[in-house]
Model the fold of this input.
Amino acid sequence: MFDEPLRTRIARARDTAVAALLSERNGAGHWSGELSASALSTATAVTALTLVARADPGAAEKLRAPLRRGFAWLARNQNADGGWGDTTRSKSNISTTTLVWAALGLGEKTDDEIPAATAAAERWLTRAAGSLEPAALVAAIERRYGDDRTFSIPILTMCALCGRLGAGTDGWRHVRQLPFELAALPQRWFGALQLPVVSYALPALIAIGQVRHGLRPTRNPLLRVLRERCSDRTLAKLAQLQPPNGGFLEATPLTSFVTMSLAGLGLTAHPVVRRGVFFLESSQRPDGSWPIDTNLATWVTTLSINALAPSALPHEAIAPLQPWLLGQQYRSAHPYTLAAPGGWAWTDLPGGVPDADDTAGAILALLQLAPGDAPDAGSADAVRAGIGWLIDLQNRDGGIPTFCRGWGKLPFDRSSPDITAHAIRAWVAARPHVVSSLQVRLDRALARAVIFLEKTQRPDGAWVPLWFGHQDDPADENPLYGTARVIAALCALESAGHVGVRAALDRALHWIVSRQNPDGGWSGAVGASSSLEETGVALEALAHAHRRAHSPSPGGAAFAAALARGATWLCAAIEQDQWRTPAPIGFYFAKLWYFEKLYPLIFATGALTRLAKLR
Done:
């Protein structure tokens, strides 16, 4: 496949990447990773803590130091154009800049850097929205998110709490009322209610709906009385959803929005606020910033196992990984989403919620860790439960959503090609290890999932993922990542004897080869610089295709040349330690970007371990 000099170089780069990835394990033997600092998270956290401090003199002294560090970090990390992006490597955007500007309105009197940062932010916002007038800002924010109110209403709520939409209660007329009273209904009804926010945002629906109602109630007397009567019940529901460490979904923004909303109502003594403050204090970093989420420990651990295994994962590394991963599986219904037992979340912390992507990754990882040809009894039981969990999550269209089946068409509740592809890979790998009755269900699920992928493939051969994007793409999308992940799934299907996917697979391979940059690497956006993450996933997909029973249709010289040029680029990136500079391609929720320190190393290792096997 490769000439001898390149083969030697690939082997050397693989050894370097494997050693580096193994060295990133923590003391417990798994990976924790490190998420990027976030201006958006930091702005929401300092706002929540400031509002608590203002309403609770007993907390003010305790919070003074973390607040000072947080405001100082925001001022230091302003972009040259006066705005802020979601990460320190992100372009300025209207959402994060608006939130920071709102937060700075609370801190102007405490720090000499704040007035200058505020003035620059106001110039940026004026250019972006046309004016600082509330109507202009509201229109600009709502244009960014369209019909999905999951993030636009929280942003405007924070602006109102900070006085940026007008004095007193007048500013609240710009904030849409969320129907928090619906949270008093049985939770199993939520999917049919078609709420204006996605499933995981229920705490924000309750808290933000309550502060809007409390400070500017509706003129409708019947609706006003209904909401007042539902207030205590929905607050009790909110407390039930909150994990013991206080962090809703381990997410700083979501926890901050809930905390600041209840503080805005004067409820600083409420247990939800107390726990929220504890979480925010505990999760601030020494430099004063907050990440979007505490960690992605389960996710990066399963990604690492699947990148290394089986050949590059030392035997001694397996011993702590298997029991740890088994311990992350949920064995009872989750109180947040009512998810059935059997799934995995992205983190090992109590704020996690079972989701499809992490469940598929965990199943694949357990099978990689299995000694010999079959998993032991403990892993086999976990795999069976996980497979059943994924099948039960499948939507009517055959695709797989993130958290909840059938909730709606908003992001994370609708089916997604990248998550569906991950589930397919888990199903194919696990099929030989499950009982015949589950195999029958699995085969039906596979057939429906393939139909979903065929329907969602673009005419040019690509698929658009949910969880990754590219900030240079006009639509913030990353079809490179989505297509690479689906290619791997279709190759797994072909290798298992499934027919009928060849046409879709060939179109995808043609597309991914055509998107290679002149330097040999890949990017998620046309004309953007190659990244180690995106080059890694592209090469891993091409390596899967090359190892199929039949030669790839793009084949011949063009396919081989793409692999060789990509491998050369990737080797050079490893030799230059570029894996230490992650790109902001991670997509959290509602157009919120992040980067993860381990992504470039994980995706490069996955590609190199497979490239080294090509013949």
